[in-house]
Write a sequence for this structure.
């Protein structure tokens, strides 16, 4: 299939022609050789086209459980364009592979884009939940917790990133999380207060029941 994939990559990369959405299904479940070919060709595709392709892949993945664009999306976490990186994070929303923890943490800590860092924080939330359900090892959760707390406590981090990190850590029943949520709830910034309420609901902690009900009334 390598030759046909090469033809496909040339076709979808041609900005003079209309992008065929149906052809993108061929990027699902690629072999190692096909993945290497894709990785070689992808950077040469125009940025606007890459954004268009990755967004279509994300929408297709949301609509169908039969496709697997994991190899494409993981590679695109390192794309030079922030919109592509952000879409790749979104597209991996249901991939629970702990191998994704390190690249997501790297994006949270080092990416120059606020929206990408915020997206990475949100994406890491599933590993907090998986830890609560005893679905991942303690050492994996420790890495996630450290990265989220680092973002929450950083005086230099953007508000939106800190908010998403608080919402992510809210799944945890560990000591200290209540205090983080409480501080967000009483923050002077309205958006942070909204995240505080969201975090209360996400935590499923009976301690917050009356307050959450009060906010809903």
């Amino acid at each position: 299939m390598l030759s046909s994939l090469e033809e496909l990559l040339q076709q979808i990369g041609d900005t003079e022609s209309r992008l065929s959405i149906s052809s993108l299904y061929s990027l699902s479940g690629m072999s190692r050789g096909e993945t290497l070919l894709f990785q070689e060709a992808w950077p040469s595709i125009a940025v606007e086209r890459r954004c268009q392709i990755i967004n279509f892949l994300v929408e297709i993945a949301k609509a169908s459980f039969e496709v697997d664009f994991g190899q494409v999306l993981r590679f695109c976490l390192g794309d030079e364009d922030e919109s592509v990186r952000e879409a790749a994070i979104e597209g991996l929303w249901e991939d629970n592979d702990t191998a994704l923890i390190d690249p997501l943490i790297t994006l949270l800590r080092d990416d120059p884009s606020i929206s990408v860092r915020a997206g990475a924080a949100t994406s890491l939330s599933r590993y907090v939940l998986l830890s609560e359900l005893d679905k991942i090892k303690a050492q994996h959760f420790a890495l996630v917790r450290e990265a989220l707390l680092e973002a929450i406590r950083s005086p230099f981090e953007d508000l939106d990133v800190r908010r998403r990190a608080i919402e992510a850590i809210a799944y945890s029943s560990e000591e200290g999380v209540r205090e983080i949520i409480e501080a967000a709830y009483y923050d002077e910034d309205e958006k942070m207060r909204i995240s505080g309420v969201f975090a209360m609901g996400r935590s499923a902690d009976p301690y917050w029941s009356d307050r959450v009900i009060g906010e809903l009334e």
